[in-house]
Amino acid sequence: MSVPMEREDRIAALAAELGRLGRRLDDMGTELISLSTGGATSEGTAPPVQQPAPAPPEPGRPAYPNAAHPGPAGPDAEADAGHPGAAYPGAGYPGAGYPDARYSGAAYPGAGYPGIAYAGAAYAGAGHLREAHPDAAYPGPARPDPADAGAGRPGATYPSIAHPGQWPPGYAQPGRPAPSTYPSYPGRYPVAHPGPARGPGPLRTWLSSLSGARLLAWTGAGVTLLGVVLLLALAASRGWFSPAGRVIAGAVLGVALVGVAVRLHRRESARTGALALAGTGIATLYLVVAASTALYGFLPAVAGLLLALLVAGGGLALADRWGSQLLAGGAVGGAAVLAPVVTGGFVPLLVGLVLALQVAALPVVLRRQWPWLAAVAAAGPVLFGSLTALVSSSGADRPWTVAAVAAVLVVGLVGAVVAARVVPVGRAAGLLVAAPVPALVASGAIGGWSGAAPAAGAALLLLLLAAWTRLDRVLRIAALAAGSVALFHATAVALDGAAETAVLLGQALVLVVVAAALRSRVPLVIGGAYGVVGVLAALATQVPPVALATFPAAPFLVGGRPQTSALVAGIGVSALVLAFAVAVMVSAARVGVLTADRRTAQLWVPAGLVALYGAAGLVLTVALLVSPDRTGFVAGHAVVSVSWTIVALVLLARGISRPALRVSGLVLVAAAVAKLILFDLVALDGIARVAAFLGAGLVLLAAGTRYARLVAEAETEDGGGPAAGPAGARGPVQGPPPPGPGR
User: Fold this and answer.
1) DSSP secondary structure string, 499-568?
2) Range 488-503 average pLDDT
3) Cα(285)–Cα(311) distance, rounded to whole angstroms?
4) Cβ–Cβ contacts within 10 Å for residue 210, how many?
5) Closest CA to 458 of 429, 428, 488, 430
6) Is 113 helix (H, G, I), strand (E, B) or coil?
7) Is the preceding omega at residue 555 within 30 degrees of 0, hence cis?
8) Calpha distance 397→403 (Å, rounded)
9) CA 540 to the chain's CA centroid
10) Which of 21, 22, 144, 349 has the most CB atoms around it within 10 Å of its CB?
């Protein structure tokens, strides 16, 4: 029995102590309220003025508006010094609206508490302030002590005056009390209600989070990794320890760091350091595997790559479990940056090791949707693959280098396509475009037909991706652009001279035709870029403008002897230039880039000039191939002048209702006339000059006559059209009646 009694005594003592503590806190709060609403302050506010005591309420009339507060003293009450405005109920007087002295406890004054009314303690939690009696319970029911339940005592278990139904008949019944703990009463005791709860502050930026303990921890991680590299690489060059001892020491250090990180991560306050320790440990184990494979030869290449993949996968799984992209990126980035040091430079094995990091990161990227981890993991293979292609593309390492860059291409494309499901498609497109870079670098470093193979393979894979209709449109466009660049690069590496120019123009022609068939602007833009390069190459080498304007027209004629290969190449390149220009205009019109209005009329001019250049080159090279002398040269120019005029007539005829074609025709007419006056008049002689001028003049006369008739007919149709007979024949145009007298 003693044990339960002691337990009850302890509980009672604890309850009493808590009660005293609550009363002290309550007294402090009441005193603060009294200070904020009491007498004069240092700011000069005057103390409250006592009002004269009004007459007691009569039965049947509403109670005093502030009946819930201490009303003025009754006639028999005596003022208590130091309690200004306090209501002290007299014997039998209904102080504060109570009809009986039993309820006078509602206005019980506390020492030092000016004029504050207090309801019964049993209802203190209903929105009324507690009075200063030391034994009053607040909030909650009254103490069960009978001594505190007498009339006029605050601990009495009488209902609050604010509850309806407690008033005797004939008195007004106020409404229920306000729900707030400290209600505000008009003109009495203003209470400052707290404002709405503020939401959390703005999220910390990356720079602000990278400060203090985190910055210190990750700096320590970087320094530790440098120490590991020195242990593995510098110790090997200085002969410190045995290779096995270095590897074992590094492995023990890495395992210990990861173990300590796992233990620290259990505490919330130590998780910043735990992330840094774990990242350092994972990178250390990875570097130990890389050194054991590439530097010391303890592991074969395949086993080393598998073990590196296992270590990287375990570390990234830990980062996934902890939900830390910083840990994942730090481990992958730190291991990749320091890997070339322990592998002895940029070798194909280095590319395989960093590819293991990218492969291990892919599942975590898919699960956690971490775009930065995808970018960090892909940066290593692209960068080190390109550097390895520059350094190791010759000698015995060439096959391994080609295999390494091919692996980077395949893994990069697969990673970009898979990552596009969870990361922003723009970033996935960036990964896709970066994947073929090492292959292009390797092609340029190797050169020739063998060097074109990596670029051609990259172009093939990318163009297949671009043709995959289930792929996102942005990725398809990126794949098409990257594949076109790879194809151009392969062409430039494998070919040169006229063959390169012809292949570029052929590729441009194919892309432009595809654009017209698909009604897509992307192939049109890429094909236009190819065509511009091809046209510039033709102007520079195969069909130079000087050869078309002067005789003996080198390189077609050298020493008076025709160069058949140059003439054949010129014919082919000129024909491709002409076909490309015509295809560009048709395709641009089909996809909506070129229209028949004046907004795009200026865009027809450059395409038309390229077409004229191709046509002139084709005519002159054919003429020189038939007659490799000056006769063939001047005959070719005469045909060019007449053909330009004929094409101008066709454009003018088709351009009656199409301003763009009409403008192009007029420009071509001006060009033909300028050629006749500035070139043919000087360069041509004999019958060729006569034929050129007569032919061009007759064509211009016919063009002018026909064009004037077509314009008149078009204006007639625009004005309402001629009258039609019964058979629908077009009748004469009815003009306005002649003016009569007085008009």
Assistant:
1) HHHHHHHHHHHHHHHHHHHHT-HHHHHHHHHHHHHHHHHIIIIIS-HHHHHSTT-TTTEETTEE-HHHHH
2) 93
3) 7
4) 12
5) 488
6) coil
7) yes
8) 10
9) 43
10) 349
Cα separation, 743 vs 739, whole angstroms? 6
Highest mean pLDDT among 176-180, 231-235, 538-542, 690-694: 538-542
The token pair at 540 is 């520079």
Closest listed residue to residue 359, CA positions, set 432, 426, 306: 306
Percentages helix, strand, coil for the chain, rounded to the nearest 5?
65, 0, 35
Q: How far is CA 320 from CA 83, 362, 367, 506, 713, in A?
A: 69, 12, 8, 51, 78
- In the prediction, which pLDDT does 630 show? 83
Minimum mean pLDDT range among 75-84, 205-214, 341-350, 605-614 = 75-84
Instruction: Transcribe 67-79 into DSSP letters.
Output: TTS-----TT--P
Instruction: Say if residue 76's pLDDT is above 50.
Output: no
Total residues belonging to the chain: 743
Rounded-to-integer distance, Cα 601 and Cα 595, Å = 8
Taking the C-alpha atoms of residue 338 and residue 343, their distance in angstroms, rounded to an integer, is 9
Q: Which whole number is the average pLDDT over 560-567?
A: 88
Helix (H, G, I), strand (E, B) or coil at 395: helix
Residue type, position 125, single letter: G
| DSSP annotation of 598 | G
R_g (Cα) of the chain, nearest Å: 49
Task: Find the DSSP H helices in 66-212.
Answer: 206-209
Look at the block and give the residue holding tokens 């360069």: 683
Higher pLDDT, residue 172 or 588: 588
The answer for residues whose C-beta is within 8 angstroms of residue 167's C-beta and 6 or more apart is 63, 99, 161, 173
For residue 724, the SS3 value is strand
Instruction: Select the more confidently predicted residue: 553 or 81.
Output: 553
Tokens for 619, please give them.
């005519």
Contact 538, 497 (CB under 8 A): no
CB 349 within 8 Å of CB 297: no
Contact, 38 vs 47, CB < 8 A? yes
Contacts of 394 (CB under 8 A, 6+ apart): 445, 446
Distance in angstroms (rounded) separating the CA atoms of residues 620 and 614: 10
Amino acid at 271: R
